[in-house]
Sequence to fold (432 residues):
Amino acid sequence: MSTTLVVVGSQWGDEGKGKITDYFASHADMVVRYQGGNNAGHSVAFGGKKYSLQSIPSGIFNPQTINVMGNGMVVNPVSVIAELRKLSDQGITEHNLYISTRAAMVMPWHSALDGAYEANLGKALIGTTKKGIGPCYADKYSRIGMRIGDLLEPEYFRMRLEAALAVKNPEMKMLGLPEMDADEIYNQYMEIAEQLKDRIVDTSDLINKHLQGEGNILFEGAQGMMLCIDHGTYPYVTSSTPSAASVPVGAGIAPQWIKTVAGVLKAYCTRVGEGPFPTELHDEIGDGIRERGHEYGTVTGRPRRVGWLDCCVAKYTSRLSGITNWAVTLLDVLSGIDTLRICYAYELDGKVIECPPSTIAALERCKPLYVEMPGWKEDITAVRKYEDLPENARKYLEKVEEITGVPVGLVSVGPDREQTFITSPELKKFAK
Ligand code: GDP
Ligand code: IMO
Ligand code: MG
Fold:
């Protein structure tokens, strides 16, 4: 039987999931994305080059690895083609990629509506990526959505398109957006269908067949658990569940396949877009981290908000995803800071709590309580063994383990594939 590893974001996204997935992908039969869409921006660096992926799984750099865009995703086929073309232009020409017939399909009205909702929300805006993710998931659950498999059935596609436009055009008119033309969309999507048709399959079937084999299967989360539609900082969230709990539904497999979960944990915190962020820094330490960590969004180019590591968040997200090991990333960015802070609890209305409260109003009142840790001066980007880390860097990681109760299984000290080392037997088996 195959072994599975889920790679999930444990904060507000951009923890380095792309890098970690790529690191394990060369030893995997398959890499599966199970939620989200091209709102994700996953960076992978090796051989002196850096690549950015939005909806294609981060195993695409290994021609022997099958990459699957699962049914839980919202797939923009126009953007998939653009991504494939960009990869080819960068010299990555073998694309072992399949897309689920059941995946929700992003249509042109979704991004138009995403932009209009944000504009009309005024100060209450969410700060979305405007890729149409929310409106596409909303249509899926309203049962007026279209699916990637519809591309294979032109007559059915046309019927669904007209049904959807009968609902969407009046809405767009009301919001002052131009109405959309069925013929134009039909022609554009049928051309896309021609290019993608061989990749569109029943991916649940494909994954389940591979689960019966002997290899490793990776599930690559997008976003982070604090952006979860159910358990995140609603409404300042995305419209899916990045948790390991959504793998079975989003990939079409049974829940008992999920055993090992690597929670990707940036050594500090970042957040793009609006919403509460208890440990946010508004000083030169935060500015320094932003510059050293190149904390600017891969999708939108927006500067990321930066803060101290929040272990209330880490404890909470490890509980939600069943995280078995932390994959700590960007530890190198903390070099040179005299005193580091780790949030271990919040003070809320005079009480100490160890878990983020469940309402946004209460979370906004939370004051982080910190443990202070001495920093280290050394450049650690060339370190490849836990023992070679400066003592204070090791103490920092040990403090994270102590507060969260989850062992560190991997440490990343730079963007490159090589700047990575494993520190636990659970994760070692996925690297060979
Ligand atoms: P993802 O969305 O979780 O895949 O993360 P992003 O790719 O959006 O953001 C992570 C950024 O940090 C990217 O620019 C990576 O190349 C970079 N990165 C990943 N791991 C490390 C690390 O250990 N050190 C440094 N300095 N950069 C890293
Ligand atoms: P990766 O996979 C960071 C944020 C947006 C916004 C909110 C809703 O690269 O970690 P959406 O377009 O999803 O409706 O936007 O979620 N967001 C992300 N932030 N990393 C991401 O993905 C994100 N995907 C969405 O900034 O606040
Ligand atoms: Mg990202």
About this structure: The two ends are 16 Å apart (CA to CA).
